[in-house]
Amino acid sequence: MKNLSSKKFSLIISSIAACSIPFMATTITSCSSSHKIQFANFESYMDNDLIGHLQDSYDVQFQWFTVAEMIETKFKDTYDVAIPCGYELIKLYKKGWLQEIDWQELIGMDDPMSLYSEVGKKAIKQMNDAFINYCGLPADFNLLDYGVPYFAQSFSFVYKGEEIQFYKSTGNHEKVDEPTWADIFYTIGPKSKYGDRFNGKTAMLDDSKSIYDAARIVETIEQNPEHPELATNVMPANSSIDSLKETFKSLTSKAQSNWYRLSTDSGQIARILADHGEHGYNAALAWSGDALYAAQGAGEYDSYTGDQMHVVKPKGASLDEIDFIVINKKNANNPEKLSRIYDAIYDICFDGYNQEDILKKDGDRYKYWSMQNWDTVSYVPLLDKIYREVSNPASKYWDDYADDDDMATRNLMTSLISIPDQVFAKSLFGLPLTDLQNSDTHWAWLETRGNF
Q1: d(Cα 234, Cα 255) in Å, to the nearest integer?
Q2: Which residues contact 53 (CB under 8 A, 6 or more apart)?
């Protein structure tokens, strides 16, 4: 297998360098003028060439953040555009800060659903229904009225080396072909015969939402093991520090000190998973884009074949998420600026959607910005034109990533670009919150932190 290009790694470096600029620039230059489009996004979550294009063509200035909750602190007064995950979109919507999307101006149609793949349509609908059912929203609420789908994410267990057999978390060594999250954590824990293989060599994102959601799903599976499809990650309304400790014990009881290597940097998780050497990790609980990046070598190592790396998407409740592009309502009174915002969103999400060959290239880059951006970020695409190409192992897209016809390798990569047909996890979707929940308590502050 060839060593892949370091385009994404270069993007990470340039983005990190750029992230320190806005704070200085807003002090000594006119970067904060009302003419500029202040665009908030995660670092390394957009193609570097596309960033330059948006800056030059639409006077966009990027503001980088590291956790989704940071959006709320600056959105009302500072950000014109942001890319929040679904539950953050709902928070902004409930505060009345979101501009309703004019799909006629953006794409020339009133109903954009036809632009998305069947998988994407289902994911959007599942998320929309979850919000209505669990957030007290009106029955006619529509996510697409307030957000433009950017990418989807799916949380999976990815591991390297020889394939393993999973076991029921009940501890009776019963084998299972379709493991739940509870089965996965049990199988890689110290009570399993695979314990030595994964002890201290499993990476996991140190993110309050991801860790809590996984722990809560495991907890509810263990409360009703015969019906994992009923598992939920909804935080109980009467939550307390003690109840959070009990939830986290669903994971900590299956491990011991330093069993999981935690990091707040998903890019670092991808790189240590991609490392073929002694410093590389054997497994990770990671979002799909980071897992795919690792499978491709993370810009530093040889890519992995289908028998070297495996992805497991658990049965039952899944940790799937959609990120959206949203517009600040304050731009409603600035038609010229709002028009530029729509033009920028079009280039990011829809450029080339009505063209015959979305994979067409101009030199080293793709002709259409939507495809160029996906090629860098690699999360689950929702636009039908892109999804059909990159989720198909036989697509010519994958010719760039394999020197041979190893379909197992291509199947590994394409399996990371699909949203599983599972129950959509509810997550912390803005339910009536207690003071504890409103604090967005980071799990690492709890006593259970010492158990990992």
Answers
A1: 23
A2: 347, 369
Bigger pLDDT: 403 vs 27 = 403
Encode 106-129: b = buried (16+ Cβ within 10 Å), e = exposed.
Answer: bbeeeebeebbbebbeebbebbbe
Q: Tokens standing for 263?
A: 């990091």
Q: Count of alpha carbons within 13 Å of 342, Cβ hemisphere only?
A: 19
Residue 428 pLDDT > 50: no
Burial bucket for residue 49 (CB in 10 Å: 0-12, 13-18, 19+) = middle
Burial of 56 (0-12, 13-18, 19+ CB in 10 A): exposed
What is the C-alpha to C-alpha distance for residues 206 and 233, in angstroms, rounded to an integer?
17
pLDDT at 227: 84
Tokens of 79: 């950000």
Q: What is the DSSP letter of 101?
A: P
- 234 versus 368: the higher-pLDDT residue is 368
CB atoms within 10 A of CB 310: 19
DSSP assignment letter at 446 = S
Q: How far apart are CA 280 and CA 202, in angstroms?
A: 10
294-353 pLDDT per residue, tens = 998 988 899 898 889 999 988 887 778 899 999 999 999 999 999 999 999 999 999 999
Give per-residue pLDDT as tens, 238-266.
Answer: 677 778 778 888 887 877 667 888 877 77
* Cα–Cα dist 222/218, whole Å: 6
Nearest residue to 58 (alpha-carbon basis) of 80, 39, 37, 81: 37
- Say how many CA atoms lie within 13 Å of 433 toward its Cβ: 13
- Residue 408, C-beta contacts closer than 8 angstroms, at least 6 positions apart: 305, 306, 307
Q: How confident is the model at residue 34 (pLDDT cuts 50, 70, 90)?
A: confident
Q: What is this structure's pTM?
A: 0.82
Q: Closest Cα partner for 91 from 137, 138, 122?
A: 137
Band of the pLDDT at 421, cuts 50, 70, 90?
Answer: low
**What are the φ/ψ torsions at residue 419 (nearest 5 degrees)?**
-95, 120
User: In angstroms, rounded to a whole number, what is the distance separating the alpha carbons of residues 452 and 447?
Assistant: 10
CA atoms of 50 and 88, how far apart (whole Å): 24
CA distance 112 to 210: 30
The pLDDT, as a whole number, for residue 422 is: 54
